[in-house]
TrEMBL record:
GO biological process, one term: carbohydrate metabolic process
GO function term, MF aspect, one: calcium ion binding
Cellular localisation: Endoplasmic reticulum
Source organism of this protein record: Anas platyrhynchos platyrhynchos
UniProt KW keywords: Calcium, Endoplasmic reticulum, Glycoprotein, Glycosidase, Hydrolase, Metal-binding, Signal, Unfolded protein response
A Pfam family reported for this protein in Swiss-Prot or TrEMBL: Glyco_hydro_47
Class of this enzyme: hydrolase
Signal peptide range in chain numbering: 1-15
Protein name: alpha-1,2-Mannosidase
Protein family (similarity comment): Belongs to the glycosyl hydrolase 47 family.
Cofactors: Ca(2+)
Amino acid sequence: MFFNGLLACLPVVGGLLSAHLLSKKAGIEVEVGWPCSGPLLRMAEEAARKLLPAFQTPTGMPYGTVNLLHGVNPGETPVTCTAGIGTFIVEFATLSHLTGDPVFEDVARKALKALWKNRSDIGLVGNHIDVVTAKWVAQDAGIGAGVDSYFEYLVKGAILLQDKELMSMFLEYNKAIKNYTKFDDWYLWVQMYKGTVSMPVFQSLEAYWPGLQSLIGDVDNAMRTFLNYYTVWKQFGGLPEFYNIPQGYTVDKREGYPLRPELIESAMYLYRATRDPTLLELGRDAVESIEKISKVDCGFATIKDLRDHRLDNRMESFFLAETVKYLYLLFDPDNFIHNDGSDFDVVITPYGECVLNAGGYIFNTEAHPIDPAALHCCRKRKEEQWEVEDLMREFYSLKKNKKFTLKQASERDEGESTKDATDASSGGEKRNSKKSSHSLLSCPSQSFNSKLAVLGQVFLDNT
Ligand SMILES: *[C@@H]1O[C@H](CO)[C@@H](O)[C@H](O)[C@H]1NC(C)=O
Ligand SMILES: *[C@@H]1O[C@H](CO)[C@@H](O)[C@H](O)[C@H]1NC(C)=O
């Protein structure tokens, strides 16, 4: 498989944060101070702290692997894929907002800025970079494997944090991607400095892109690209890992379909935006394929080869975590995840009231939803404390002799939920590949250097 070493750690942090935020809704008794404190939040914080040593590099871009006991191993390769550097902001900013410790958000932002600074003159990023020297080791620019969740997290981070800087970075990339990699609503791979096409392939991992485009409001483009991808689905009853666009066929050794979520995830977002029944048709086709082709006694098997529908003796974790979840959400318009802000919960904490579950959920790259209102609520608590302190200072210094009433700062209208929930994902496998180290994110096991002419050779394993 071309995704190895998918990490244990970041999904652990994201999963814990999501479970922490959903725990009250799930009927679990929460401690005083929740959602700004709680046992799962403390576990998430502890797990995230163990990742921090990876960020101690001259560039601020993290190593791809870190030893959970001892930090970065001496002799660890400094070459990390772009996604492995740029996929922290959703979890780390959530953690910082909930706990009040800015370190997590700071390191994630620094890594994002370093990638941004190191984009090429024509505005593209490559696939692998040396985090010590900031030299691009694999110079293929595209939207799929090795890069995907970086773009995903710029958009989701921008929405989660209402952050204009992150969004403007994405919009600049989007311009360059459209200009250099897009042909007839397909996206190809190009050389990051010259913009020349290096691989005319569509990877099934890239199918998150229409969903991401719909999140920035570019629904027409998103729909056209989605329909291209859907024709590939119809041709094979699934999405092959690689599809050679000019030849209109699968790529040697990349004919499998491990029941990845990305196209279904895009269908879910686009359906929220358009209610176009074609999107439900894709959902129906997916359910049928999964039932007819991949169902076995103990689960749902990876399709090893879409040409003859042979199966592999494995079921990937993203099948349940993401594929099934997005299918469910596609067909369940009343799900609380789709809340448009008309419903919400008010929670009383020792610090005041707090609005939660008003919608606008941001899915992390493993499809764990994060409630953006919770971030706001914990931060607001701190801002209010400062506000009160300021008022008190003013009161004592200036208004000593006058009667003074503190105004109740009661305009507390959280729950801004402008967007539908969010996500798109690389959804690689979540496995550890090394004994004592854990790689942080999905990177292709072999960087694709310049043997690009030979299609299908590029992503081959050594094994
Ligand atoms: C790459 O990023 C690093 C860290 O931000 C920066 O020091 C360096 O100047 C950048 N390189 C280029 C060519 O911009
Ligand atoms: C688009 O590409 C052309 C070269 O093909 C270049 O001259 C132009 O500046 C590019 N525009 C953007 C927005 O990247």
